[in-house]
């Protein structure tokens, strides 16, 4: 930053500052001679305090003349635009710490140091009593008194401020891609404006004349550009400030009088105004097109998501339906196998009975032969005749055994069923569109409808009456390895009761140690139905086998997690259903006999009040991912302490 004349006048129009100036390297001109001080000594004599005082008084008397000369010298400095940032930082650095001077002092030899640095150096020389300059090695005795060099301190402060300003964005240097100032020497600053008249670019400092000099104020300034030559007419070396609409080119004013005479021309500014309005209109159209395309993008994304969701739903439906079909066929296969085995068992049982009968008759005949042999040797004619008459027996009727038991009827029925299924699949599956479902009403899946129709043909209908449910009855027992310590099993592990005393059960990894619960030993798969009688306050449940057994957390309690489903039956309140720790009040009274029906493949769990018509209490539709087990939770009533009992019922009773 350049020195300003007002600052110079402020600093050097006082006698003390002027006297300090005399002691710090500055020449003072008089009319007849030049006196030059260096440090605290003159060039011709050794420094002494009396000499300094006399010189100061003498100079004070001629203050007006000397001050006039000094101001003249500083005016020249100001006009030369000498700035602090042009000075070398090294000239104002301490040679001891190598940093800018801090609290600078000047010693008798004329060199300046930080006050702390020179004191540290001289403190080390205190024993010898001889003090040296760290730079020129001059010696001093005694130790000089150090005084702050105010002039030097001001210069250093100016230099520090200049460095801060130079580091700011407004005074930064030109970097890659920036337009450089054409008037900067050395490292160039970044240009802020370009002049079309001067054909040059200027930084903030060199641009000031264009704002201050009247002749330069008329120049046309534009944003800094590195391609100013492109704005000049190559033929006339004039600024291209006219646009020829006829030739669609930029020209100068001399071109208008020559090649482009009588052409449709307009100033660049007016052309810019026209194009600016066209640009705004084009921007609006482009923005509108962007919005339209963004809307189409959203619609397309939504369509993609819909297709993915529809395809995933179709896959899940097909997997579920095929699983149900396979499960149904597996069940039918098991039933046919059981039917064949039952017929086999019946025929074998009949054959065994006939075999026993024949063996008995053979034994009787053998005994008869022996008796007749003995009778033939008797000499008593009367006895002989009597025995012959009494032992005459008719032989048993002929026994026919079916040696060729035929299952041709079963085989023919299965072959017919296979043929019907193949024909059905061929006829129905061909209706599925090759490239997905099109023109289908929302919410209806052709695939699911066709699969559902196939399942209805293969699977029997849902049970309605108690007799229908009993077709799927499962004979369950309770697992002693899972029963809690305060539960007692009875009736060949088909009943469980809450006990006040802890039972001496062995430790087992599958045993519930906190919740008074028990699981069935047999799993529940396919379609399964069982009936439960209860008393007190109990939870009738189904659960995955992976349910946690140890601890008091919700992961162990039936209905408190996503691995179990539980119906709470209480003599004191209506039914409540629990799953994943969510309570659902059913608002219906409890029934002393509850029927539980599970269709694992269909993902349904139903609770019924047992009667001939089977009243539905609650039904759950879900997807079972593991094998299910029946379970019971017998809570403890600390108030009434009524008995808690659950019994798996025999449907014949």
From TrEMBL:
Residues annotated as domain B30.2/SPRY: 456-653
The record's annotation in InterPro entries points to:
B30.2/SPRY (IPR001870), B30.2/SPRY_sf (IPR043136), Butyrophylin_SPRY (IPR003879), ConA-like_dom_sf (IPR013320), E3_ubiq-ligase_TRIM/RNF (IPR051051), PRY (IPR006574), SPRY_dom (IPR003877), TRIM8/14/16/25/29/45/65_CC (IPR058030)
A single Gene Ontology MF term assigned here is:
zinc ion binding
The B box-type domain is annotated at 228-268
Top-level taxon of the source organism: Eukaryota
Q: Point out the coiled-coil segments of this chain.
A: 276-310, 341-375
Query: Can the keyword Zinc be found in this entry's annotation?
Result: yes
- GO cellular component entries: cytoplasm
Report the protein name in the record: Tripartite motif-containing protein 16
Report the source organism.
Ictalurus punctatus (Channel catfish)
Q: Which UniProt keywords apply?
A: Coiled coil, Immunity, Innate immunity, Metal-binding, Zinc, Zinc-finger
Domain (RING-type) spans 94-137
Q: Which PANTHER family match?
A: B-BOX DOMAIN CONTAINING (PTHR25465), E3 UBIQUITIN_ISG15 LIGASE TRIM25-RELATED (PTHR25465:SF5)
What is the gene called? LOC108261588
* GO BP of this protein: innate immune response
């Amino acid at each position: 930053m350049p020195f300003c004349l007002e600052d110079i006048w402020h600093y050097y129009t006082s006698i003390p500052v002027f006297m300090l100036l005399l002691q710090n390297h500055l020449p003072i001109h008089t009319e007849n001679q030049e006196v030059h001080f260096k440090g605290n000594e003159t060039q011709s004599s050794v420094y002494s305090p009396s000499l300094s005082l006399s010189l100061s008084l003498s100079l004070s008397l001629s203050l007006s003349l000397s001050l006039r000369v000094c101001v003249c010298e500083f005016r020249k400095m100001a006009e030369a635009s000498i700035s602090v940032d042009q000075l070398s930082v090294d000239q104002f650095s301490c040679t001891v710490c190598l940093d800018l001077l801090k609290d600078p002092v000047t010693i008798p030899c004329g060199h300046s140091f930080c006050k702390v640095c020179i004191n540290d150096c001289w403190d080390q020389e205190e024993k010898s009593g001889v003090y040296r300059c760290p730079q020129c090695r001059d010696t001093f005795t005694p130790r000089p008194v150090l005084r702050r060099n105010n002039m030097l301190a001001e210069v250093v402060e100016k230099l520090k401020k200049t460095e801060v300003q130079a580091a700011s964005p407004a005074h930064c240097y030109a970097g890659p891609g920036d337009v450089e100032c054409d008037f900067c020497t050395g490292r160039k600053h970044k240009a802020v404006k370009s002049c079309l008249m001067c054909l040059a670019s200027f930084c903030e400092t060199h641009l000031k004349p264009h704002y201050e000099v009247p002749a330069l104020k008329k120049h046309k300034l534009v944003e800094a550009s590195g391609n100013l030559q492109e704005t000049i007419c190559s033929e006339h070396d004039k600024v291209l400030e006219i646009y020829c609409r006829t030739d669609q080119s930029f020209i100068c004013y001399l071109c208008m009088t020559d090649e482009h005479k009588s052409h449709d021309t307009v100033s660049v500014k007016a052309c810019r105004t026209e194009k600016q309005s066209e640009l705004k209109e084009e921007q609006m159209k482009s923005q509108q097109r962007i919005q339209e395309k963004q809307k189409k993008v959203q619609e397309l994304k939504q369509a993609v998501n819909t297709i993915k969701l529809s395809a995933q739903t179709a896959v899940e439906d097909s997997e579920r339906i095929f699983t149900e079909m396979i499960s149904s066929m597996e069940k039918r296969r098991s039933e046919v196998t059981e039917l064949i085995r039952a017929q086999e068992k019946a025929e074998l049982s009949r054959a065994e009975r006939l075999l026993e009968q024949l063996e008995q008759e053979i034994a009787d005949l053998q005994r008869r032969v022996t008796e007749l042999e003995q009778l033939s040797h008797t000499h008593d004619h009367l006895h002989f005749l009597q025995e012959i008459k009494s032992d005459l027996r008719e032989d048993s009727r002929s026994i026919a055994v079916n040696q060729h038991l035929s299952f041709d009827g079963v085989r023919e029925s299965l072959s017919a069923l296979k043929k019907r299924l193949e024909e059905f699949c061929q006829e129905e599956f061909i209706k599925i569109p090759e490239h997905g479902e099109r023109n289908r009403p929302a919410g209806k899946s052709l695939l699911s409808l066709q699969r559902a129709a196939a399942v209805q043909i293969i699977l029997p209908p849902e049970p309605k009456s108690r007799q229908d449910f009993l077709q799927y009855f499962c004979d369950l027992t309770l697992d002693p390895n899972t029963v809690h310590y305060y539960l007692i099993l009875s009736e060949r592990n088909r009943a469980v009761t809450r006990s006040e005393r802890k039972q001496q059960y062995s430790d087992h990894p599958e045993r519930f140690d906190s919740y008074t619960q028990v699981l069935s030993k047999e799993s529940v798969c396919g379609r399964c139905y069982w009936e439960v009688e209860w008393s007190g306050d109990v939870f009738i449940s189904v659960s995955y086998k992976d349910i946690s057994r140890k601890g008091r957390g919700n992961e162990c309690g039936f209905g408190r997690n996503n691995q179990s489903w539980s119906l709470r039956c209480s003599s004191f309140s209506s039914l409540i259903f629990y799953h994943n720790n969510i309570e659902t009040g059913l608002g219906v009274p409890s029934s002393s006999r509850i029927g539980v029906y599970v269709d694992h493949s269909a993902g349904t769990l139903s609770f019924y009040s047992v009667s001939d018509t089977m009243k539905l209490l609650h039904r759950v539709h879900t997807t079972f991912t593991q094998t299910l087990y029946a379970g019971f939770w017998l809570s403890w009533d600390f108030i009434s302490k009524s008995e808690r009992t659950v019994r798996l019922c025999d449907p014949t009773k």
